[in-house]
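Human: Cast an eye over this sequence-structure pair and say how the chain folds.
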Amino acid sequence: MTLYGIANCGTVKKARAWLDERGIDYVFHDYKRAGLDEATLRSWVAELGWEHLLNKRGQMWRKLPPAVRDHLDEASAFQVMLQTPTIIRRPVLDIGGSRHVGFTEDQYQALFAS
């Protein structure tokens, strides 16, 4: 299981603490430092949709030029996320058979209820 995000993100910190408190093993992949490979991002977009992955409420979104923001489609959004992975909503949790974006205690509780 891999948790993707950036170390200083508050939501990522909450997700990591939740997993740690329950003794759930995971690998943390900081895509601000380690980047994100194209194949991984393509699989996320195919499974989750680029609209769900793109964080339109963050600082990186606001830094995009209006000409880019106003004319995004899947191809251009993919390139933006590949070049600037910090614009991806976080965390992304890969539990093997599926990926999940964001964190709430209820969401993780449901994922690990078994």
